[in-house]
Give the backbone structure.
Amino acid sequence: MTKKERLLASLRGEPVDRPAVSFHEVNGYRQNLDDPDPYNVHNDPSWRPLAQLAFEKSDCIVLGGPGGKSVTHNPVDERTKWESWDENDRRYFRKTIRANDRVLTCLMRRDAEVNTTWTLEHMLKDADDLKAWLDIPECHEHRFEIDPSGILALEERMGDNGIAMLDTSDGVCNVAGLFDMGTWTVMAMTEQDLVTQAIEREHRRQLAWVKAACAALPGRPWRIYGPEYAIEPYMPPALFRKYATNFTKELVAVIQKNGGWARIHCHGKIRNNLDALADMGGDAIDPLEPPPKQGDMTLAEVRERYGDRWTLFGNIEITDIENLPVAEFEKKVATALREGVGGKGFVMMPSASPYGRNISAKCLRNYERMIEMAEAGG
């Protein structure tokens, strides 16, 4: 089978020649190895063998959204200002929003050695900030003009080497990200009406965007991320349904109505929320982190409960790839293959991707073993 055939068969619940193996965001397409930008960690020579391995051997999944723009007036946009500057080998971004008599401020920082952006100051600090944000007039009808050319070009470039997967956040992700995590959990518990209003507002916009994207690019696989902001141990199962299930399932329904597949991305302890995740109606789930660290269910347990409905993605911890000796890491891979294969389908995949500038020889060898063991049947 080609890589594309193997991945699509895994999503459809059809037989495959061997388990698919994705390196998550490492695929050889998004890693720009030759860009000299000092904030591009992938131009370090140690990244080249890993990117090449991903491109040549892994079942490539490239995440990304289509281009496009809103074609309706959004009052939030005209109140928003962005600034960026470099200082002491760090890049800063500041976003401000004028909300009544308040100026809401978010400050972020990007370090040259790390492929991530840290939020130093979150946009909303308390309930009064949230009320001011909610008081900004909302667009009456969200409409988007989608430019599918980027995705179409990517699909043509990839050919049979894998699949492009459209990517979107959900409402709870957009709202939770406005707060630091501690404030978010307190607000979600104590200001449920306000938080629900905020999620409803973000969900209306997100739903309109997904509908427009599906109309322009039907029949594609999608990843929806964000439910983890309402998962245990942050808040009880009842709030997971209230903030995540009841909204994300509408995004899933739109994707499926247009012939696509929806993969639900949710880190964390899922045991007490597994039925609520299933009620979203998704076709696949990730990353299914094993216990006892990040997760609280084995892959075998998830497969027994919902393996006939879901294609299971994941079960390999990125920290294990980066830190375990090869002989110990092989045991993790063997367990994932033994427990994951069967049911509708399985794609072995790390829970995340390296974000540092240097890829160690041990890390590279562990990635190689994922491929070798899958090709050998586990």
Remarks:
- The chain has two domains: 3-74+125-375, 75-124.
- Residues 28 and 51 are 5 Å apart (CA to CA).
- The two ends are 18 Å apart (CA to CA).
- The mean pLDDT is 97.
